[in-house]
């Protein structure tokens, strides 16, 4: 098992997958990791759709037409519930997007721990997704294709700002 920093290094935006199925054991592990994610005031303002059927994948692929996206054997669609999210009292700030980001990253790190790849996709046809996968009272925030990474999947080096550029102390 990798330590946390090794997982952070291993996790990357995988954009090419094999057709090898993800095991039920791995799927349960990923679901558990998401379920354990923290949220503001423990509201858990999320719902997730796992898309693995041929019909579901064909529908979802209409929402984002990139060739690499179609190589994924499975997808996670992350939805937020405004009605269930915590709202900061001082300024009315809604925390659903923040909370969902944490849960999705739990999913991606758990996938990396299991040797699976993932990629967060936010640039998709939101209207089409809403029409094809209607979820009452919910709004889709991200699609996460995931699966076994193809051997020839490009892994670009992580380029990060320096510590001095992103942190300061007082």
UniProtKB/TrEMBL annotation:
One of its GO terms (molecular function) is oxidoreductase activity. Gene3D superfamilies: NADH Oxidase. Pfam families: Nitroreductase. Transmembrane segments: none annotated. InterPro entries: Nitroreductase, Nitroreductase-like. Residues 10-61, 63-148 form the Nitroreductase domain. It comes from the Bacteria. Coiled coil: none annotated. The keyword Phosphoprotein does not apply. Keywords: Flavoprotein, FMN, Oxidoreductase. Its cofactor is FMN. Belongs to the nitroreductase family. This is Nitroreductase family protein. It comes from Prevotella corporis. The lineage of its organism: Bacteria, Pseudomonadati, Bacteroidota, Bacteroidia, Bacteroidales.
């Amino acid at each position: 098992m990798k330590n946390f920093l090794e997982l952070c290094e291993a996790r990357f935006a995988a954009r090419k997958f094999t057709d090898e199925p993800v095991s039920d054991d791995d799927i349960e592990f990923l679901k558990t990791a998401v379920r354990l994610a923290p949220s503001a005031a423990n509201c858990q303002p999320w719902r997730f759709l796992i898309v693995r059927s041929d019909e579901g994948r064909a529908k979802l692929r209409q929402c984002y037409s990139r060739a690499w996206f179609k190589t994924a054997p499975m997808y996670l669609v992350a939805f937020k519930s405004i009605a269930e999210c915590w709202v900061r009292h001082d300024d009315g700030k809604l925390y659903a997007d923040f909370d969902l980001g944490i849960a999705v990253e739990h999913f991606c790190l758990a996938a990396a721990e299991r040797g699976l790849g993932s990629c967060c996709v936010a640039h998709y046809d939101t209207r089409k997704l809403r029409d094809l996968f209607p979820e009452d009272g919910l709004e889709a925030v991200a699609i996460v294709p995931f699966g076994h990474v193809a051997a020839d999947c490009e892994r670009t080096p992580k380029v990060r700002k320096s510590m001095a550029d992103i942190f300061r102390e007082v």
